[in-house]
Amino acid sequence: MFRSHTCGELRTEHIGHEVTLAGWVHRRRDHGELIFLDLRDRYGITQVVFDSITAMAHKVAEESRSEYVLQIRGRVRARPAEAVNPHLGTGTIEVEALEAQVLNPSRTTPIYIAQEGGEDEMIRLKYRYLDLRRERMQRNLILRHRVIKFMRDFLDEEGFLEIETPILIKSTPEGARDYLVPSRVHPGKFYALPQSPQQLKQLLMVAGYDRYFQVARCFRDEDLRADRQPEFTQLDMEMSFVDQEDVIQLIERLFIELCRAVVPHKHVPTPFPRLTYAEALARYGSDKPDLRYGLELINLSDLLMATPFQVFQQALANGGEVKGLCIPGCGSYSRKQIDELTEFAKIGGARGLAWAIVPADGGEVRSSFGKNLGEGEMSAIVERMAAQPGDLLLIVADQPTVVAAALDRLRREFAQRLKLADPNTLNFSWVLDFPLVEWNEDEARWDAVHHPFTAPQDADMHLMATDPGKVRAKAYDLVLNGYEAGGGSIRIHRRDVQQQLFDLLGITPELAQAQFGHMLEAFEYGAPPHGGIAPGIDRIVMILADESTIREVMAFPKTQQAVDLMTAAPSPVDERQLKELHINLR
RNA sequence: GGACCCGUGGUGUAGCGGUUAACAUGUGGCCCUGUCAAGGCCAAGAGCGCGGGUUCGAAUCCCGUCGGGUCCGCCA
User: Fold this and answer.
1) Closest-approach nucleotide to residue A91, Cα vs C1'
2) At a CB cut-off of 8 Å and minimum separation 6, what does A328 contact?
3) Of all helices (H) and strands (E), which one includes residue A395?
4) What is the per-residue pLDDT across A364-377, written as a single tens digit (0 to 9) for each?
5) Do A90 and A45 contact (CB within 8 A), yes or no?
6) In which residues is L-aspartate bound (predicted)?
7) SS3 (DSSP) at A216
8) Distance in angstroms, CA of A111 to C1' of B57?
9) What is the per-residue pLDDT for A350?
């Protein structure tokens, strides 16, 4: 044994004990004849004192530098009252070194472990094994472990079985771009890495494993974002003989209890608020609204049906809408600031931004468009938006999707600027009644919004043939503080309904057979009604950890170009490897 | 594919047409028995991501390129 205790373990009760510690030199305070070393491991920090009387040990301390790995035998003693360190768990004691040896020296590290952050993320990722020594990353990875452990224990208690599914699976052109793995044995053929174990978990339902889950690694070859990595982890789940409400109830209990266990200082409003997809878009411009604050979109369309203002009039005439946000207390914004907001809205697709200011001193409303309005329209707008003196009104007129995108951006921007979102609230919510399909302009066809196995709502079945865009799906998203934290659905278990949907999606029987033949066949052998959900573990842990990127809760993440800076993956391979795989590079 | 931001000793920053390229921290040496971001003294360490251009003169301006980030597209 290299150690008798960890560096976070010793307390007053250990005083007088002889102990052996091993760890890294966190900091060194060299007073000449007396040297203090903070020895660190992942459990904590213990102060070790080297007196020159114990000459051999003292010499080791003298030669040691940051991040040297040391083993120290010593005696635990109380610190003098004035030398107690309240910031350390071990702060009431110290270890008087009797014997010490360097297990391994360290070069000067490119990042300083004892001091948090500040440096370019590039350097942290290149030397991730050093970055991971730091408290922040340890805290995040420990939290992640606790979250996953809680999920496993909870679902085990609920009768779920964790079943592994293959990583090498069949590629299907639906959805995200697949990562492909060439087959050596079958020239010209490829496996795909799973975007999620979707089909496999449904087949497990057919197989009678009526409560399945998996902490599943998923792969999507799409461009990265702060909350998107090419490989990520989902709590993949599926249940038989359930409806939407059963899934929702179970997940709600899971997250309420999880948060109580791992982040007890956070406030979780319950029950989780529920919004329909249509309502979420109408009120917040997003299907994943942050409900920690209001700042809702206000519809002005009906007030302006007869407006002489061309921009509004045309938008309404073309089936669009006019909506706005009332930003409290921002009436003092300058033209330059408003111009910047306009540019910001344009990123969201808006062609422009109409603004109005209700002066704080109660004077006339100033605006970019007031002179174009008809009689009484401005006062109607101010009244509808409940604008108070000192408020800024921002208005977008366009097609509903554009209005929603632009105002959603502005809503989130102002929530940040005005600090409207309480960082210690976890606002889980459900967004329900997603459309089953949406019209794809480019390809001129209907696409599945969720995936092609999602069941339509019974009440909307009659619209399948006549007005498919209006059919709602038995699909639901779990939203947390403005992030999509998970999505799921009740699946189609009847062959005839599946056929109807394939017809709608333009998937011919031949194509269906080639791509999903195994699924269709399986469903002919007694598929139970089933459904599930897949919460995104990285995103949820990110939010629980108060981080703003999922890289901070992953041990070895990739850059925006999907590169691992530490190992330099991806990398070229030997000609011989390519040859074995029957691959010629173009 | 596109927009924007960033790139200066090991690390973090300053410098924004003429500086011996500044500061902090870390690093090396010396001194120091109660520190915990220990302290004091001394020293070394970058030619400014890379390549071109403009200029008498470029870290500073321009063009390109590489790398990192945020976002749009994309993500059933």
Assistant:
1) B36
2) A388, A390, A391, A418
3) strand A392-398
4) 899 999 999 988 99
5) yes
6) 174, 220, 450, 491
7) strand
8) 37
9) 87
Integer CA distances (angstroms), A498 to A36, A426, A440, A457, A512, in order = 71, 37, 20, 13, 10
Q: Which nt is closest to the CA of A194, judged by C1'?
A: B76
pLDDT of residue A118: 80
Q: Which residues pair with A324 in a beta bridge?
A: A298, A395
List chain A residues with pLDDT less than 50. Answer: none
Smallest CA–C1' separation from A38: which nucleotide?
B36
Between the CA of A125 and the C1' of B44, what is the distance in angstroms? 29
Distance of CA A490 to the CA centre of its chain: 23
Determine the distance between A549 (CA) and B70 (C1') in angstroms. 11
Instruction: State, as a whole number of angstroms, the distance between the CA of A423 and the C1' of B13.
Output: 30
User: Tokens in use for A283?
Assistant: 């009120």
What was the pLDDT predicted at A459?
A: 95
* Inter-residue contact A585 to A578 (CB < 8 Å): yes
ipTM score: 0.93
What Cα–Cα distance (Å) separates residue A209 from each residue in A112, A150, A190?
50, 21, 29
Do the Cβ atoms of A540 and A262 come closer than 8 Å? no
